[in-house]
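Researcher: Quick sanity check before group meeting.
Model: Go ahead. Protein one:
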Amino acid sequence: MTKTKRTHPLGLLDHLAKSVKNWWPLLIIILAQSQSWWGKLLIPAAILIFVVWPLISWWSISYRITPTALEFHSGILVRHHEHIPYARIQTVQRKQWFYLAPFHLEEVSVETASHEDGKPEVRLAAVTPDVAALIEHYRQAANATSSDNSVDSAEPATTPAVQASYALTTRPRWQFVLTSTGFIPILLVALGIYGKLPHNLIERLGSDLAHLSGLFLIIGGLAIAVAAWLFTVVMLLIRYFHFRATRTGDQIQVAKGLFQRNTITVPLQRIQAVRFKQNVFRQWIAIQTTQLLLASHAAAEDNNDDLVLLPAVTLQQSYADLQPFVDWTPATPPDLSDLSVTNGRRWLLVRNALLIALVPVAIATWFWPTWNALFDIALVIAFGQGLFAANNTGGSLVGHKLLVLRTGHWWTRETYLVPLAKIQSVRLHQSIWMKRTHLMHLTVNVRHGNRNQAITLRYLTAEQAESIYDWYRTNAI
């Protein structure tokens, strides 16, 4: 496919949706003032913005797939030309909305490590599946140590055998969605909206609620929390519908979604680190989620650019289930006591958590003394969080090329598996007070999406921290 092509005309829907998203206030004004003379004057502007401009935008986009690189042309007033060698591609993402499925079309996004602002370098809104297949073929050929004939072929080679496969079955699916903490941000947003209401309306609501019993208010608050939790459950069921992960050759592919089938393909060499994540609810039932940290924005819809590989696996099977997908990881859980925090240093993490909570609790107690008992509970929670962080600090070296680090914050346990080649830098931090007690903070920096992922273990002994620093300094290329 060396001829320059445009996307399918259904790609116009994507450009129309963008126009509505960016200019919806203008659309509302025009609809609300359609009978007034100045509202009618805005109709030509609406036609330009919502009809003409999307049509020109769609027409300005073209692409060409050659055996050596992907070429992408876009822009109306300012033309942009992208030339992307296949070896530079980080991820290829395929999305198929339900309205594209009957026409056998999909959206294809291509990212390299140089992408900015969460936007892929190439985004084709409506193309046939053979476009992504051909890009994948050329990318694999560019990264393989095969003959030049495989690169020059315009047809995809024989599909390699599937080396590993995972499907989200019924029980793990329900364990995954029912134990999500995604409802907490929804409650915080609702609280923020309440704080933005007009002052007189808040006072009226307060006076109305003052006549209700405390039990009724508690039931109302629980009802709101349950509604937010149910909303999160439904959204996760839709997002992880028919979840499936496979490894074929040196490629990992994850596919999921009901209304939008989202397929992400990642080469093994583009994985920056692996993370096991376990919130407080999943700790109770002994399951955790396996995520891949990428230098890409393709997994932005998952969880902060973390590509979910195994949504819900037991603690005993986590490493064994991961190893067939990512072969540089151990098959059994490593001993992480080498970088643990002993009893004599745990109180430091507890102290820090209490100090962070003490100031806002003291201010709140001063202004609302009747809620003193509730604020005391916050201090108890802070104490527990500090102890949780101390108990979950750990790490060790696995062989000479892999560093495993475990942290605990906000009642979430995270275990990182970081290969030596993907570590950007290692930093030691020691205050003047810590110098007297021979303690240090260790920070390992890894590329993550468009940003840096800093993994910090606090209050290690100087010997523990310096051992990792010396290992990295000696072995880093």
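Researcher: Fine. The other one?
Model: Protein two, sequence then structure:
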Amino acid sequence: MQKPPIPLDEAERLAALRSYRVLDTQPESDFDALTETVAMVFGTPIALVSLVDADRQWFKARVGLEARETSRDIAFCAHAMLGNEVFVVPNAFEDPRFADNPLVVQAPQIRFYAGAPLIDPEGRRLGTLCAIDREPRQPTEQQLGILQRLAGQVIKLLELRRVAARLAESLERARTLQRLIPICAHCKKVREDQDFWTRVEDYIHAQTGADFTHGICPQCFDEHYGHLPE
């Protein structure tokens, strides 16, 4: 069995994958629908959205497979994600890279595999969208083209998840500022986002539009100016 090589940008790739905060999340209907479409297009019993983590491949969506993850060392998807085109294995039992792979000689007894790499906008490879059969087969060019286009839709769904997560964080920061405003105990400047400190007058004006006039309260007058002759 040939183990999949580790990409040269592995650290950056893993950071990109984890930035989506999708690993070990619950099934989502949009991902499920794309996986079901792949199974219908290829007529295969198994289809997966597979994300390749440091030591495992984890399935965000799956058709025809009970397992939620497998070891990365035996993952067809860890090979498939390395290229730009769809990775095709017509008959794994006759392929020296996979003939003795546990996923071939044992359940689910993979024979045919086609996987389109999931490549994010920065060029990081996250995993694959794949079709799997227990019988050898040769896919058509049309099927491979559809698989690659659907892989692009998986990336778009992941991007939407990341944008939604960042928006939720921004809203939470805004709520925190509304509940608790950090203010310097000495100069009374207010800390805004990104650790930028501003005068309390400027902060309140930016938040509410209110303007200020300045005077001296009686207590401060007595403390600072009470010694002066009238």
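Researcher: One line on it for the slide.
Model: The CA atoms of residues 139 and 154 lie 21 Å apart.
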